[in-house]
Amino acid sequence: YATSTAVLNWGVPAGTSAIYLSFDKRSNGVGVNPYPASQKERIIRDIKDGVWYFHLTKEQTIGTRETVSYRIAVDTVNPTFTGISESPRTDHSVPNVGIMITASDTGSGIDHYEFILDEGKPSLWTDDGSHTRVLSGVTVGTHALVVVAVDRAGNRASEHLSFTVDNLPTPALTVLNTAFIEGD
Predict the structure, then answer these.
(1) In the prediction, which pLDDT does 169 show?
(2) Which end of the chain, N or C, is surrounded by fewer C-beta atoms within 10 Å?
(3) What is the pLDDT of residues 54-113, one digit of tens each?
(4) What is the rounded average pLDDT of the residues 119-145?
């Protein structure tokens, strides 16, 4: 989650005499702080980034206890770009342009990227490990590209890049044989 506040609510089955709640880093914890059986919601604020667990233990009037735990992963930090560049090209008239991206997110990891070329509609891309997205069929001219890295919590960071696709070179025609015969 990209927020540091959790609103947790639950139902209380008939025959529940008490509930016990706790919030910690242990995945197999139990509720330890007593609350009345009528308690059905808890708001926890200022949760630090990381993985936490909310534990709810219900005590039945017959004396049995049952614990359920809920995992809460908090990531409030935007991804970080460490590099964005155009892949080297030997021919700038080729309309396929590779974009090399290096981004990271220590909290939840990069989920996907959004590419916005010349203020158009975003196209989604998930890195296959190559860290390079090839934009195909780019028209001739100078282009503005916005790349947005989106982590699994929904946090976003963007970088801008300009690149150019040149016109094809003017073809040169060379006459190799100047002796033409009528009908050639």
Answers:
(1) 76
(2) C
(3) 999 999 988 899 999 999 999 999 999 999 999 999 999 999 999 999 999 998 999 999
(4) 95
Cα–Cα distances (Å) from 40 to 46, 47, 82, 102, in that order, read 20, 20, 45, 45
Are 86 and 162 within 8 A, CB to CB? no
